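Thread: "does anyone have the structure for this chain?"

Original post by V.I.:
We have the sequence but no experimental structure in hand. Need at least a predicted one for the grant figures.
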Amino acid sequence: MKINQKLFSFTNVLAVAGIFFLAVGCTTTPPDNGPKYTFYPPAPDAPRLQYLTSFGSEKDLRGSGGDTLMTFITGEAPPNTPILKPYGATTTPKNIYVCDTGVGLILRMDLEKRRIFAIAPTGPGTLKLPVNLSVDDNGWLYVADSLRDQVVIVDDKENFVGTLGEPGVNKPRDVVLDKDRIYVADVAQHAVHVFDKATRAPLFDIPRRAEATNINVRLFQPINLALDSHGRIYVSDFGAYRIQVFDKDGNYIRSVGKYGDNYGEFARLKGIAVDRDNLLYAVDAAGQLVQVFDDTGRLLMWFGAPDGSKAGLNLPAKVVVDYDNVAFFQKYAAPDFQIDHLVIVTSQYGSRKVSVFGFGHKK
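Reply from O.Q.:
Generated one for you, tokens below.
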């Protein structure tokens, strides 16, 4: 779906809107006699994104009536695995994976069974503090572990495959995959390491050596990564309050954002994601929101609100774009709103640990 930029006329409002910590004012207030839906941007602009639902435990994932059904089927009280302090996340068809830093495990949310399963490899694959992860087409997990200071690779049966990085030298904080490469964000080396996926041999670093000291190009604290449809790599640089964009060969293209507390700026930059139209989603934990930019770096809109509101976020950390699991969440959408893809945001505190938004359009 190609986005009509006119639908984002809310951007004009942003230019004069003031400080984004007042984000709670964005939610709509439908009449009390009907269901309450929260859309972004607010009326009179055309809605592009709706808050759908959130969950902080297995009980929330099952939803209303789920416990009664499971008790009837099994004769036992259903489990209620909590989500304690999620950071990184990713998805596959029928699943949401979350790195729960509160327990040092990976949680797999089975959307079809509405169950939460813990992933805890043993032996040389034992995880200590997983912060981010990716899953390949074979179901192998690539996990950035901030206490091991390595990327741990386990197969779909949780068997240890190997590691990337050397403790005491590297501090990987995120890992993303494409068909042929592995990208690892390393805060100790101020770089993104690029590996051949088949052999796990190092290829090159981003930024390239010749640009590594250029103040406009260099990386200070690269903590989150994303890839777009052109193979460009986006780097969330926590220490520089900006997102650096490089081409597939590691050449610098542009920066998005700067330090500040207004729209288009970042005070506590965290997770990033890019959708199929190359729209960039960026979490700012200070403003408790996610900002959306086009593929030139122009701010289009924002969504989210402080904890306590219906769509509240509480120290948000990661944002994930998902096209495979829309069917599980369409039921939460307004009757006249069609979801094109999901935008999933983790929060480290509060009851809404995993919040699900739907990006779409009026039918």
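V.I.: this helps a lot. Residues 307 and 314 are 5 Å apart (CA to CA).
O.Q.: and The chain has two domains: 5-120+207-362, 136-206.
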